[in-house]
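Colleagues,

For the teaching module next term, I've prepared a clean inverse folding example: a structure given as tokens, and then the sequence designed for it. I'd like students to try predicting residues themselves before seeing the answer, so please don't circulate the second half yet.
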């Protein structure tokens, strides 16, 4: 069962009531030190590539699968950036969730950058200090941690 089917199934049981969802996402940098963001099809807002963990997947498997689906890139996981738990989400369709996001640094091993025009309507690399407003609080926290790691604590 894939994550869309799982979420649809669980939503058929609980409607739009708040549930716990676990996501895995990743950050990849180009040679100029810019990080890849996707403009999401569901909200038209920017965020890091990633998605819901499917039954039977590890978080690492999820980020590899989601990168391929959402960006066309083949990646491997290199480091854990963090686990982000303080996020109450309400999606455009009214669904509510307490989301947990596991973020990784990833390295490109192949593939070609491309949008599917469904989940991803645009892909672009951004300087960490010149990023657009992000999809949710967890993505902002990831960005802040990336800035701290890249620039060091002041």
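(Answer key — instructors only)
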């Amino acid at each position: 069962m894939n994550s869309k089917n799982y979420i649809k199934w669980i939503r058929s049981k609980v409607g739009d009531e708040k549930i716990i969802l676990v996501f895995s996402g990743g950050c990849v940098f180009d040679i100029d030190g810019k990080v890849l963001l996707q403009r999401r099809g569901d909200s038209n807002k920017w965020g890091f590539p990633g998605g819901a963990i499917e039954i039977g997947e590890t978080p690492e498997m999820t980020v590899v699968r989601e990168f391929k689906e959402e960006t066309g890139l083949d990646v491997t996981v290199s480091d854990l950036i963090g686990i982000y738990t303080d996020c109450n989400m309400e999606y455009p369709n009214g669904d509510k969730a307490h989301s947990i996001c596991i973020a990784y640094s990833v390295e490109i091993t192949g593939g070609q950058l491309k949008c599917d025009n469904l989940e991803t309507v645009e892909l672009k690399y951004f300087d960490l200090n010149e990023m657009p407003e992000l999809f949710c609080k967890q993505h902002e926290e990831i960005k802040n941690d990336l800035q701290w790691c890249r620039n060091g604590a002041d």
